[in-house]
Design a protein that fits this description.
This protein has helices at residues 13-22, 35-54, 70-80, 101-106, 122-130, 153-162, 182-185; strands spanning 62-65, 88-92, 108-112, 137-141, 166-170, 189-193, 204-209. It is of the alpha/beta class. A 7-stranded mixed β-sheet has the order 1-7-6-5-4-2-3, with helices on both faces. The relative contact order is 0.19. The model is unreliable at 220-225 (pLDDT under 50). Bound molecules: pyridoxal-5'-phosphate.
Amino acid sequence: MDLDAAATTSASEAVVRAVQDFLPWYSSVHRGAGAKSQFSSARYEEARETLVRFVGADPATHVALFPRNTTEGLNLIAFRLGLTRDDVVVTTAIEHHANLLPWRRNARVRVVDVDRSGTFDVAAVVAALDERPTPRVLAVSGASNVTGWLPDLAALAAAARERGVLVVVDGAQLVPHRQVDMAALGIDVLAWSGHKMFAPFGAGGLVVARRLLAHGEPFLVGAGR
Ligand SMILES: Cc1ncc(COP(=O)(O)O)c(C=O)c1O
């Protein structure tokens, strides 16, 4: 049963209590003038800030969106970046399909291979970043769902940023297991799944640098749900 938690956890008792406490006060978010609607909208906006701080980002520069899970978050950002078929995304052979298929659909993918141990060197990623055409995005997993291996995100992000390449991290297996500091690591976008860390199902996190969104404002994923 515990091993199943890598795929999905059930909500913790504290989460169940918090949801139960809130439900009687729920009314549509950003779609009503009533007191409950205003209360719910305020809680919704507070939750964005909580999520941003939870992963070490600054609410002044980053904003949280609420996709249902990592897959939806990565699809959203892959679409939202307005990539074309000529744009290149560097990614790796350790990725879950959630961090591969959205990029394949929206751009051209350059995949960094793994060695016999199922890992890759930072140098291999740097070589892929230096190939022409210069990529627009590095999309990499923060922790492998197969081996648990943790790539050196700080070094990868530094190499990408030096080359003006956006850093998008699949945090599905990282965020539930390690404290993440997006600012220190230099990550632009981080996606993860609440259902892998005791949240109610259908509650994911996508923290995005505001500069990547039109006018720096979030589009309201799931408002009124
Ligand atoms: C590394 C990794 N990325 C992405 C996903 C997809 O997560 P979800 O199904 O919650 O979208 C998983 C799920 O196991 C995963 O382990």
